[in-house]
Amino acid sequence: MAVALLVAGVGLATAAGKRGGDPGSNDPTPGLVSALTTSLRPATSPKAATAVSNETPVVPGYQVVVAPDSGAAYDVPADWTVSAPEHSGGFGTAPHSVGGKGYATEGKNYCPGSTRTVSFLTGTDDADSAAAATQLGTRTAKAAYPNSPSGGTPGPAQPLDSLDGSRHGVFVETRGAITDAKPGCATEYSVYTFATTAETGSFVMVIAADTGVPKAVDPDTARRIFASIRPHGT
User: Fold this and answer.
1) CA-CA distance, 91 to 93, in Å (whole number)?
2) What does the DSSP 8-state code read for residue 113?
3) Is 50 exceeded by the pLDDT of residue 6?
4) pTM: predicted TM-score of the whole model, two decimal places
5) What contacts 151, CB < 8 A, 6 or more positions away?
């Protein structure tokens, strides 16, 4: 697939696939709409590549991803790579980029030039959670998999609550095919999104995943990650 990956504002056009990398600086990504702190904050320039949190995850065996700019934290499997809290990342080049904070990846170079899974927190002005989850799913599909013929087909919005009961939102899976996959790379993908209403717009979490390959994130795993979203530092 041909992907233009935004890593903290550095647009890297590539024909190799959904790439991982260390976020850089000069992030043009809009501020995040937080459902947990209900404030709008700009992204900041990062200093370090990765971070290991010593906080206790709510999902046993997982690790914690912290996004202070959105006042939130969530859990991912222990073998994922978690970027430092001030980092941002995502896909595409401005003005058609999709990105945010609380950035984590899994499966870097699982096949030539590709990263299997990317997750981050972001937001939208749309206060309709179902519409927000659907819209961010299709936007991310187009940015992360621009050679996907349909741009991704969203499934129905399904209710999903956080484990701590603080968030009531919706889950959407947007699926698509990859026509130009390199040998060993996935030929299909899913963009999972979770959206919940904020004081202004919606808070949205995105997981973009190559699927149909070993260790791919399935819908149940995506729901488990989404359900771990909780307030942090408030």
Assistant:
1) 7
2) T
3) no
4) 0.81
5) 138, 141, 142, 145, 176
